[in-house]
Specification:
This protein is mainly alpha-helical. It has one domain. The protein is built from 2 helices and no strands. Helix 1 runs antiparallel to helix 2.
């Protein structure tokens, strides 16, 4: 679900960058980038229970 939200947020940022003011687009991009990094760190630190 969070990947869908991130994808929609990136789409909104692209639309704002295309039509809206530059400072708003840069600010939204920074917020989405922080969200992407937080999601990555959340999933990258999960322990893998592997049994061979």
């Amino acid at each position: 679900m969070e990947f869908t939200i991130l994808f929609l947020a990136i789409t909104i940022v692209m639309l704002v960058a295309w039509r809206g003011p530059r400072p708003l687009a840069v600010g939204l991009f920074a917020v989405v980038l922080i969200g992407c990094v937080a999601t990555f760190l959340h999933h990258a630190t999960d322990r893998l229970n592997l049994s061979f």
